[in-house]
Amino acid sequence: MAAHIRMNMSQLPMTTEREILTLAQWLSPAFPIGAFAYSHGLEAAIHCGAIASGEELSHWLTDILQHGSGRNDCILLRAAYACEDAVAMTHINDMALAFASSSERRMEQSLQGAAFCKTTDAIWGGEGASYVYPVAVGVAAARLKIDVTLTAAMYLHAVISNLISAAMRLMALGQTEGQGILAALTTQCDETAKMTADATLDDLQSTAFMVDIAAMHHETLQPRIFRT
To answer: Does residue 115 lie within any of the structural domains?
Structure first.
């Protein structure tokens, strides 16, 4: 059945509209990677009072996009997209794991990536390998020749959307305010995707220290709702 689906998909023209729709499917909350179960350390930050308002949440997410894992994920996604060598791809994936700030963040990236690879391989074809989430998205986008900057921007938008959804379950944040924050950060998602166009693995770094520390604190947080 999977082979039949892959054959049919390969026969469809990959127009710009189809690229957008394919990315919308991959990065939808309905895509089975379990993203709803992870808060990226946000639960610990809200629990300790570091985030208590929509404005503070917006600043926190902006730091992720500009100085933390959001920027790094774009670099990793782009590196995976451009890579055609299996050994080099392993190196990229290892770098992604090395830059996970805690054991829970490593788990978050690995499990979501494995689930993404499993589903995309079954429908769009693949080599059966398992990569961390941003690397997996880059590999899949390259396979279908989807624009890498569009992929990176929509990937960031999906990550931020998921974190805002988590915040709505953790604090007094209404749906309208949450969507307002997401709309305001859309431009930043696009800018971060474009700013990393010439970046290499040597440019990986994180100065979003509070975000990383929150992810570490979450490992011992009790009680808790999210896995990270």
So the answer is: yes
